[in-house]
Amino acid sequence: MPTPVPPPALPPTIAWRGGADGHLELLDQTRLPHEQHVLEIHSVEQAIDAIVRLCVRGAPAIGVAAGYGLVLGVRNASPGAAAFLDVVRDVAGRLTASRPTAVNLKAAIDRCVVAVAAEPTLERLFREVQAIHAEDVESCQSIGQHGRDLVKAGATVLTHCNTGRLATAGEGTALAVLFAAWRAGVRFRVLANETRPLLQGTRLTALELAAEGIPVEVIVDGAAAGLIARGQVNLVLVGADRIAANGDFANKVGTYGLALACAAHRVPFYVAAPVSTFDLEAASGDAMPLEQRDATEVLTLGGQVLARPGLGARNPAFDITPGRLVRGFITDLGVLEPPFVPVIKTMLSARR
Ligand code: MRU
To answer: Which DSSP state fits 195?
Structure first.
């Protein structure tokens, strides 16, 4: 395996500068790995644009970014509690619609709306968003600690999409587990699915793992099942965008196929996600909205058009994996194992 050249340190994925009258900074992930460009976001329109274009992405990260977007969108509301709450509800609706699958975004916005309903001030809203931001950093840390013993010395771990610092406000979810194991002295290697169409694996995951010194090779998504079948993968570790009450979960398109291959060949398949990714309102995967993105993403690569004019394409950004294919959920509160219905219910009620 070639020795990777360590990439330069990255600026924070998300940062807020100043008080409630300040601004949001987002590392523009569409330009990685070649360019480190930090976007200055001063309005909710700019925040929504950055979320829709995937300048900021990953379920927990878009929850935090949307919270700050709400601050930007309501801070010039007319005086008076009723006028303030009207604007909050309007802006909250626009932010929630910007990316429908990751429940962290909706949960963050709903939590802010509840907070300001009790105390309708910008300061209260800002405090709530800062709390969501800080809690995400802590959740990532805990996920890493709870999951790290699942990674064994000498293992080859396969992962999909990007679930690291670039997908959260902290160390990540599935990648936080790998970072924690590596720092505990466990030596392993990683296969990163490239994750077509937008190549989060090649552009982002490989960058983050190399920065930590973890050996990583990229594979095309279609290679994964064959490598799993031939015994070349010991553990598959992915993140989640929304987890239903029965353990079905939505994640980047391609996750379901990985889970099927793992079940067929008895390879452990684990999902790392914070409690904020669980959605008890969804009884199963059937209740989850799946984002459909523009066909252009499939028909182009790095801006280059691949197909003849007129060719159609389907671009579901996520798929649903049934909970029965999951060996366990690595959460900030511990590792959950089947049967998921009672276990998830107990965990979420203990949290409230
Ligand atoms: O479309 P993206 O890049 O936002 O998709 C991200 C994923 O699917 C991640 O696996 C998921 O958000 C969990 S990462 C913390």
So the answer is: -
Catalytic residue check, 21: no
- Which 8-state DSSP code applies to residue 6? P
* Closest C-alpha to 181, from 139, 136, 212: 212
Give the model confidence (pLDDT) of 78-123 as tens digits.
878 999 999 999 999 999 999 999 999 999 999 999 999 999 999 9
Token output for 47: 């925040």
Alpha-carbon torsion 101, 103, 106, 108, what sign? negative
8-state DSSP, 201: I
Please tell me the distance from the alpha carbon of residue 127 to that of residue 331, in angstroms, as a whole number: 25
Residue among 340, 57, 102, 81 nearest 205 (CA): 57
The alpha carbon torsion through 313, 293, 56, 77 (nearest 10 deg) reads 150
pLDDT in tens, 265-306: 999 999 999 999 999 999 999 999 999 999 999 999 988 999
> Token match 């626009």: residue?
94
**pTM, rounded to two decimals:** 0.96
Q: Which helix (H) or strand (E) holds 76?
A: none
* Strand 300-301 to 304-305 pairing: antiparallel
For ligand 1, mutation pick of 200, 292, 329 (most atoms within 8 Å of CB): 200
**Measuring from each residue's beta carbon to the nearest atom of ligand 1, which residues come in under 6 Å?**
54, 57-60, 102, 161, 163, 167-168, 173, 200, 239-241, 251-252, 317
Amino acid identity of residue 223, one-letter, is A
